[in-house]
Design brief:
The chain is mostly helical. The protein has one domain: Phosphohistidine domain (Glucose Oxidase, domain 1, 3-Layer(bba) Sandwich), CATH 3.50.30.10. It contains three helices and two strands, in the order αβαβα. The protein has helices at residues 2-7, 21-29, 40-43; strands at 11-12, 33-34. It has a two-stranded parallel ribbon with strand order 1-2. Strand 1, helix 2 and strand 2 (33-34) form a beta-alpha-beta unit. The protein is globular. The relative contact order is 0.25.
Amino acid sequence: WEPVMKRAAAIVTNRGGRTCHAAIIARELGVPAVVGCGDATDLLKDGTLVTLSCAEGD
């Protein structure tokens, strides 16, 4: 997944926490990420524009 993450404007995952692989790579790349969102990737369709807020949560 790392090559895809390098092209992403932001990362959203269904599972994980602040030490998961996606969170670590996002920090290294300076890309905003929200991890552990339950079924977010099932609800979001390809091409959907979303606003990602990292200001709230853990």
